[in-house]
Amino acid sequence: MLNQPRILELRKHLEQTIVGQADLLDKLVISLLTGGHILVEGLPGLAKTTAVKALSAAVHASFQRIQFTPDLLPGDLTGTEIFNPQAASFSFAEGPLFHEIILADEINRAPAKVQAALLEAMQERQITVGGVTRPLPELFMVMATQNPLEQAGTYPLPEAQMDRFMLHVMLAYPTPEEELLILQRDRERLSGAEVQTKAAVIDVATVLQAREEVKKVHVAPSLEQYVVTLVGATREIGKWLPPYAGFIEVGASPRGSLAIVHAAAANAYLQGREHVLPDDVLAVAADCLRHRIISSFSARMEKVSRDDMIRKLLEAVPVP
């Protein structure tokens, strides 16, 4: 775990930019350590975009922010073939997806054909245009944001794309103490008294080495069985929670099990441990599952949210 202190330095660096939102910062670092994609959802003004930009600024990596709008085209992301009349041939102009860290801002404002253009990049880390497949950078990851309000002019993400995100983090309002600190930091910024912080604290090689170290974190067979049981419980919730029978229309896919194990290993790594504990699984399970289950009409009528059901399942499934 030679690179773990450097990753903790990165985590501390993020706290200098973002007030509160400790869970979001942890999940951003976990996604970086695993190479998984992350979807951040919250009301306007909760520092979703700021947090992702802060992470990208702290890593010596190529970064591209894409503002998703209804008039976006697939080629605006992937790139396109351009005809050169002098050479009488086509050349490929790379799109913004060929960067290492992608901020997909307000991702649900783009239509389905644009969302589909992301699927190959997010799953296979490659892009195919004009019959030619081109690999994406090794560090490649998508950090997307979306606003749960203002549904007019937005396009809900397809379930297939939601499944490609390893984590789905929901943000809450800051505490009064945190909001006061936000005001104070803003006054410091306006007065020119803001403390300047280092722009970048780690490089891509360090991140890739840390990813290899995370892969070596031990996960006991009993914990693997626990994860499988937990994810399987979302497919037959009535067995574990009879009052909620029929409340989940579609349960989590096997990607849910993989996401939990990978994220739990990264969480243990951040804590300086070489093995995963049940607490690591509990810390990441909700963010790995909430976008992978579909509530039924009955659940919506009874006003039982996905988070409610996940919380009850975490209480019901025995922890090893």
Describe the structure.
The protein is of the alpha/beta class and 320 residues long. It has two domains: 4-172, 3-Layer(aba) Sandwich (Rossmann fold); 216-316, Helicase, Ruva Protein, domain 3. The protein is 46% helix and 18% strand. The chain contains 14 helices and 13 strands. The chain has a five-stranded parallel beta sheet with strand order 3-6-9-1-10. Strands 2-11 form a two-stranded parallel sheet. A hairpin with a 4-residue loop joins strand 4 (79-84) and strand 5. Helix 2 packs across helix 11. The two termini are 26 Å apart.
Give a quick precis of the structure:
The protein has 320 residues and is an alpha/beta fold. Helices cover 46% and strands 18% of the residues.
Ordered list of secondary-structure elements with their pairings:
Layout: H1 4-15, H2 22-34, E1 37-41, H3 48-58, E2 59-60, E3 63-67, H4 75-78, E4 79-84, E5 89-94, E6 101-105, H5 112-124, E7 126-129, E8 132-135, E9 141-146, H6 159-162, E10 165-170, H7 176-191, E11 202-203, H8 204-215, H9 221-233, H10 237-240, E12 248-250, H11 254-270, H12 278-289, E13 294-295, H13 297-301, H14 306-316
Parallel strand pairs: 1-9, 1-10, 2-11, 3-6, 6-9
Antiparallel strand pairs: 4-5, 7-8, 12-13
Helix pairs in contact: 1-2, 2-11, 8-11, 9-11, 11-12, 12-14
